[in-house]
Amino acid sequence: MSLVVYAPASTANVSVGFDVLGGALTPIDGQQLGDRVKISEGSEAFSFACVGRFADKLPDDPKKNIVFDCYVAFKAALLKTDTKLLNVDITLEKNLPVGSGLGSSSSSIVAALEALNALHKHPLDENVMLAIMGEMEGIISGGVHYDNVAPCYLGGMQLMINEGDIISQKIPSFQHWCWVVAYPGITISTAAARDILPAQYRLSETLTYGRRLGAFVHACHSNQPELASKMLKDVIAEPYRSQLIPGFKEARLFAEQSGAMAMGISGSGPTVFAVMTDLKQAQSLQHWLTENFLQNDEGFCHICHLDEQGARVLGTEL
Questions:
Q1: Residue range(s) defining the domain that contains residue 109
Q2: Is 97 marked as a binding-site residue?
Q3: 121 shares a domain with 10
Q4: Residue 144 — pLDDT band, cuts 50, 70, 90?
Q5: In this protein, which residues make up the domain named GHMP kinase N-terminal (predicted)?
Q6: 106 a known binding residue?
Q7: 202: Cβ–Cβ under 8 A, 6 or more apart, which residues?
């Protein structure tokens, strides 16, 4: 038996929720924006291949790919169950650019672990899986973070709880929002994006952060989209990270003039997002960003909705 698992791109932080908010993304035109993994029973313990648009950005050595780390972690977790580990043949289709701010590593991690779990008939429950995913993300970014893996795995807009045995929970989202997402084609490492942040913040900034995050979550639960959009302002990362992104100020100005309710940096950047409700305005912004914000042929711009489903088994062929 062979399976193909898809894990969508994600946007972390969402401006107002540094390290505690994340949303899964899917283009409205039906394209897939995320990595895929094909898995089947193999003749040896672990065999691996990497294909796709951004495969050449990853190490040639299979054991230096995060998918191998996922296999090792899954193997260790399986020892606590009655399920026997199968020999696996894995192919990663790398469709997301590395260091893009779209949860590239999380997409690979989630697709690989979901594929392993599905092939073995789901011996690991959701909480165990999510905990392993966070640990794998920590290998890449230097610290355990769930704001990409949680929405990628579970779908929708996720709020990181990380208290007791609750890692993340889905909060209501606004289905009429269009997320215009533009990746300029350059790379910013998560580590570099964190290094540019100050070691300490003023009390007034932290109070503003907490107030806006609370108001955003409240607005989502009480179906107040206008209030929610007004809260999508970043006082923690954007004032510093925006200087790492060429053309950010110009893109923000055009987005505001085009009717965007909010604009911000996706994750660590350099991808940016704008929230809009009018599709024609979103298409106009998409065209402008494609012509003026993208830096090279590797860049792209999509109009997305939140992907409410998260990771899923697609079928048996890449």
A1: 2-172
A2: yes
A3: yes
A4: confident
A5: 74-156
A6: yes
A7: none
Spatial neighbors of 130 by CB under 8 A, at least 6 apart, are 146, 149, 150, 153, 154, 167, 168
Residue 104 pLDDT level (bands cut at 50, 70, 90)? very high
105 is in an annotated binding site: yes
* Two structure tokens written together for 220: 């989502």
Under the banding of pLDDT at 50, 70 and 90, the label for residue 273 is very high
103 annotated ligand binder: yes
285 is in an annotated binding site: no
Please give the pLDDT value at position 187: 87
| CATH code (residue 95) | 3.30.230.10
Ligand-binding annotation for 266, yes or no, is: no
Establish whether 34 is an annotated binding residue.
no
**CATH number where 206 lies:** 3.30.70.890
Edge-first strand order for the sheet with 46-51 is: 46-51, 88-93, 34-41, 2-8, 312-315
Q: What is the pLDDT of residues 208-256, one digit of tens each?
A: 999 999 999 999 999 999 999 999 999 999 999 999 999 999 999 999 9
Give the domain-ending residue among 138, 172, 206.
172
| Residue where a domain terminates, one of 154, 172, 190 | 172
